[in-house]
Amino acid sequence: MESLTDTPWDVTISGTGLAQSLLALALSRSGKKVLHVDKNPYYGGAETAFSLQEAEEWVEELKQGCVPGIADDAHGPEPGRAPYEDVSVHSPPAAPDSPTKLAKSRAYTLSLSPQLIYSRSKLLPTLVSSKVYRQLEFQAVGSWWIYRSSETSVLDRVPSSREDVFSDDNISLRSKRSLMKLLRHVTRTPQDEGVANETEDLDLPFADYLTSRFNIPSELQYPLLSLSLSQSAPQQASASYVIPRIQRHLASIGVFGAGFGSVLAKYGGGSEISQVGCRALAVGGGVYVLNRGIQYIEAPQDAKGDTSQHSRLLVKLTDGEEVRSAFVVGSRWDLPEAADSVSYHKVARSINVVSSPLEDLFPPTSDGGPIPAGAVVLIPGNVLSKREDAPPVYLIVHSSETGECPVGQCVIYGSVSLPGAEGQEILDSAIQRLLQSVRNEAGASVLWSLRFTQLGRADDGSADPIPSAAGRVIRFPPPSLDLAFDDATIDAVQKVWKMVLGDEARDESFMQFEDREGAGDDEK
């Protein structure tokens, strides 16, 4: 076997995050010589999944200076080595009489990428056409819930279909008519009569759009907003952003079963998908090296179009070994420092192990339908803050059926579009309100919590890959902070795939593979 140094690599991928791993999947049948390295000793990069002990070790590594030079502003250039800051672990002392305590560390698989996946997402058909779907298990995300107010501490299920609207006793008859008008409007197709010639002003704030166009009362604005997973208040989010996302939600319902429109990947979310992509490249002849990143890249002079060994990029790995590669691809955090003008947004997030299963949040999606493994709870920002324009808090709840925690417990993934201590204080308040509002769960408590600020691409940020060194070094855009899988990730992977393959690339062949011989036995 040739050494890494002696092999003329066509592509070196740095980092095993979701985008890099999907690129690995796309290149797995290309016949290219691919070296895939990661500075971490584990797969998944910034989208990995941890046991309790691994999470605590990760926090200590970041605190001890593995992420130097953290910026203070929420939108400045990111100087660190990981898209996380303000990391901490909180483990309250267990009550002596509590029947539920933390299990062993390995009983947990806590995901840094718990995004739900809509059934109309580009990701699912990509996993099917690339023949790796057999290695993944998906589970339904069922109900959306809205927390009403601090006075009532009531959770209401958000109606997301015409049937739900008609059967909801909390909505007045007049409001039901307005909601039905809105639902008919957003579920129309271009083929419907009059749609092609109709224009409307979507530049309004979402709240104003609902009031002026459909006479929707203010108490229904947050429930509708929740269907879009917008992390801005109704007054701050534009209708042009929210309405297409509500359309996505509604169009996804019923694709895989009655009553639900999104799924999650069992055993760690995006981390599990990353490992499947890497496994496909390894089967296709790619070489994997963990615990080694890239220290620097040196581009030869006038090498564009020349792929001989000496015209390739000189890549020095962090252990001192040098390799040559025609292309190097990675994220901003997996490649050597480079001056760029990319802007970043910051959100506070937390991962919370809860002592109760919170079963009432997971009713069946329909008669005879599956018991969901996920639920979405929105708590309006103005319930938690005196500011009317405060961003909402989303709490994504995963049951033990996800394989992320033991039976009798659940995991709550919290997110709010405020970084640092302010965001964490609001998240903590939101979680306590949720636990107090779920029926028959008076003793529910947080057993363990991982808290951090995450950096990523703003909603209006470019999702295009960034080439440099005559197109030989390619950086993926910052990861999306969306609570649902962002299809722009697939688009970015395809663009990088085309840059690497050049004239060999055909759009119709992207991620279109035949079953490998014996795949029915080996890949299940």
Short synopsis of the structure:
Residues 72-88 have a biased composition (Basic and acidic residues). It is built from 13 helices and 20 strands.
How are the SSEs placed, and which strands pair?
Elements: E1 8-14, H1 18-27, E2 34-38, E3 49-50, H2 52-66, E4 84-90, E5 110-111, E6 117-118, H3 123-129, E7 138-147, E8 155-157, H4 162-167, H5 173-186, H6 206-214, H7 221-226, H8 239-252, E9 262-265, H9 270-283, E10 287-290, E11 294-298, E12 313-317, E13 322-330, E14 345-354, E15 374-379, H10 381-384, E16 393-399, E17 410-416, H11 420-437, E18 446-456, E19 466-468, E20 473-475, H12 488-501, H13 519-522
Parallel strand pairs: 1-2, 1-13, 2-10, 7-15, 13-20
Antiparallel strand pairs: 3-5, 4-18, 6-9, 7-8, 7-9, 11-12, 12-13, 14-17, 14-18, 15-16, 16-17, 19-20
Helix pairs in contact: 1-9, 1-12
So what's the overall shape?
globular
Structural class: alpha+beta
What is the number of helices?
Answer: 13
Task: Round the mean pLDDT to the nearest integer and report it.
Answer: 89
Q: How large is the share of residues in beta strands?
A: 15-25%
Kindly report the name of the CATH homologous superfamily of the domain at 8-76 and 267-341 and 461-509. FAD/NAD(P)-binding domain
The number of distinct β-strands equals 20
Task: Specify the helix fraction band.
Answer: 25-40%
In the predicted model, the low-confidence regions spanning at least 5 consecutive residues are 67-79
Compute the separation of the termini in Å: 29 Å
The quaternary organization reads as: single chain
Radius of gyration: 24 Å
Look up the CATH topology of the domain at 8-76 and 267-341 and 461-509: FAD/NAD(P)-binding domain
CATH architecture of the domain at 8-76 and 267-341 and 461-509: 3-Layer(bba) Sandwich
Tell me the name of the CATH class of the domain at 8-76 and 267-341 and 461-509.
Alpha Beta
Largest sheet: 10 strands, mixed
